[in-house]
């Protein structure tokens, strides 16, 4: 496998598909223009994940995210990173059947500059994915641990621990690929199983908590930059201690306000 380590290159569906076995894809989430602008020209794709409902909106899970909320954040991200390949997560309950899924996806394309949408589900959602892709919607799949299934599954459970589950996941991936998805997120899955899935499909797999053998990685920006303090999943690497840095900076600001060293003469009109 020749893995190119190159600088940023603007992505499109063709390049994403061609990257399989050539270049590891770097994906990061973003929820606003400010951060999207910082990530553009570094990450290959920016995902407006419905995880924003937790880390941005402070909700306990992703289930209450709405289409309008996702569209609002996707527009902000596209405004900040107009050249980036932006993917919008379809929120829970917006793609329960083919008709509804297409209507909502068309609304996303009409109201944002998102290049693609992401939907959770395997074989159970393959027909819906096929209907979307046949109607010119670019779809990224999402299998393994699927946060939108948290209540029906009774929690967030690592996938692929048994032979049966491994076989199910491989079937899910193949069904999503056959339905026309251009890539698949594999979340919270045993690394050896994610490797087998990645070898079984011809489209790139993007792992999160799925080991190193997927075709790319995705991390939630607020996790990897250390802003989300509630908990740190095992698979997250902190590349910055964002929370501590922010608290230290705001503390210094407060001290400067209290001892009247802010604003200084040069900061006055
Ligand atoms: O919502 C999200 O941020 C996601 C990633 C974890 C892949 O779906």
Bound compounds: 3-methyl-2-oxobutanoic acid
Mean pLDDT: 96
- Shape by Cα distribution: globular
- In DSSP terms (H or I, runs of 4 or more residues), the helix count works out at 11
H/E series? HEHEHHEHEHEHHEHEEHH
Radius of gyration: 20 Å
Sheet with the most strands, sense and barrel status: 8 strands, parallel, barrel
> What strand line-up does the widest sheet have?
1-2-3-4-5-6-7-8
Approximate helicity band: 25-40%
Structural class computed from helices and strand pairing: alpha/beta
- First-residue to last-residue Cα separation: 61 Å
Note poorly predicted spans: none
Q: What is the percentage of strand-forming residues?
A: 5-15%
How many DSSP-defined strands?
8
Short description:
The chain has 269 residues and is α/β, with parallel strands linked by helices.
Model description:
The chain is of the alpha/beta class and 269 residues long. 39% of the residues lie in helices and 14% in strands. The protein has eleven helices and eight strands. The chain has helices spanning 13-18, 33-39, 52-55, 67-80, 98-111, 126-134, 150-153, 163-178, 191-200, 221-224, 242-258, and strands at residues 25-29, 45-48, 85-89, 116-120, 139-144, 183-187, 205-208, 216-219. It has an eight-stranded parallel β-barrel with strand order 1-2-3-4-5-6-7-8, surrounded by five helices. Helix 2 (33-39) links the parallel strand 1 and strand 2 (45-48). It is globular. The protein starts with 12 loop residues before the first helix and ends in an 11-residue tail after the last helix. It binds 3-methyl-2-oxobutanoic acid (KIV). 3-methyl-2-oxobutanoic acid is lined by residues 29, 47, 49-51, 89, 185, 187, 208, 218, 220.
């Amino acid at each position: 496998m020749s893995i190119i380590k190159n600088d940023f290159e603007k992505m499109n569906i063709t390049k994403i598909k061609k990257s399989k076995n050539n270049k590891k894809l770097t994906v990061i989430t973003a929820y606003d223009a400010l951060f999207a602008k910082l990530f553009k020209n570094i990450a290959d794709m920016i995902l407006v994940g419905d995880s924003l409902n937790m880390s941005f909106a402070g909700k306990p899970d992703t289930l209450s995210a709405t289409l309008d909320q996702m569209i609002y954040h996707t527009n902000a991200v596209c405004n900040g990173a107009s050249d980036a390949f932006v993917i919008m997560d379809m929120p829970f309950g917006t793609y329960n059947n083919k008709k509804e899924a297409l209507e909502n996806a068309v609304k996303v394309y009409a109201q944002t500059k998102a290049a693609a949408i992401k939907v959770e589900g395997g074989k159970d959602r393959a027909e819906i994915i096929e209907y979307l892709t046949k109607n010119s919607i670019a779809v990224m799949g999402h299998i393994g641990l699927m946060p939108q299934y948290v209540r029906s599954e009774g929690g967030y459970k690592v996938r692929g621990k048994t032979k049966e589950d491994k076989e199910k996941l491989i079937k899910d991936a193949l069904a999503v690929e056959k339905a026309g998805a251009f890539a698949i997120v594999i979340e919270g899955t045993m690394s050896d199983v994610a490797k087998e899935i990645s070898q079984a499909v011809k489209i790139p797999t993007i792992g999160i908590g799925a080991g190193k053998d997927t075709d790319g990685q995705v991390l939630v920006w607020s996790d990897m930059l250390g802003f989300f303090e509630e908990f740190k999943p095992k698979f997250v690497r902190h590349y910055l201690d964002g929370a501590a840095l922010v608290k230290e900076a705001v503390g210094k600001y407060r001290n400067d306000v209290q001892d009247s060293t802010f604003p200084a003469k040069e900061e006055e009109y």
